[in-house]
């Protein structure tokens, strides 16, 4: 398991270094008042937003899985309390899901509130 995790982290770090370089040739031809590094800056923001969304989705998915697991175990032990457990679980799942929505909003702000985006995209 450690080997798979290490390889995944190494691949993400390598991609984070390669993706901005892939757009470096286009950056030379991009005419913008901010200079030639604007496409690299935008690519770095896109990579950061993607990694942030991935980590946010992973964390909320794990949290929701643990919440449902605990609720199912609680209902299995005490079926009479299933109504209270289910209500509490649904409220908890809504709170956990709101964290994923916050991550999405921050990623979209990073991507679309960038002042250089009008020169990069078109």
Task: Give the overall shape, derived from the CA principal axes.
Answer: elongated
**Beta-strand content bin:** under 5%
Fraction of helical residues: over 70%
CATH class of the domain at 48-122, anyone?
Mainly Alpha
Distance between the termini: 44 Å
The chain-level mean pLDDT equals 78
Count helical runs: 5
Under CATH, the homologous superfamily of the domain at 48-122 reads: F1F0 ATP synthase subunit C
Low-confidence stretches: 27-33
What's the helix-strand series? HHHHH
What's the structural blueprint in terms of helices and strands?
Elements: H1 2-22, H2 24-29, H3 38-77, H4 82-112, H5 117-121
Helix pairs in contact: 1-3, 3-4
Q: Tags for this entry?
A:
single chain; 122 residues; mainly alpha; F1FO ATP Synthase
Task: Provide structural commentary.
The protein has 122 residues and is mainly α. The chain has a domain of 75 residues: F1F0 ATP synthase subunit C (F1FO ATP Synthase), CATH 1.20.20.10. The radius of gyration is 21 Å and the shape is elongated.
């Amino acid at each position: 398991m450690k080997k798979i995790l290490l390889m995944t982290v190494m691949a993400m770090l390598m991609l984070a270094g390669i993706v901005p370089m892939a757009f470096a040739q286009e950056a030379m031809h991009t005419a913008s008042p901010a200079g030639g590094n604007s496409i690299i800056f935008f690519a770095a923001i896109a990579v950061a937003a993607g990694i942030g969304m991935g980590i946010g989705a992973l964390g909320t998915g794990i949290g929701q899985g643990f919440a449902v697991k605990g609720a199912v175990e609680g209902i299995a032990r005490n079926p009479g309390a299933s109504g209270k457990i289910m209500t509490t679980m649904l409220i908890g799942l809504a709170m956990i899901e709101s964290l994923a929505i916050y991550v999405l909003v921050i990623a979209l702000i990073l991507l679309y509130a960038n002042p250089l985006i009008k020169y990069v995209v078109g």
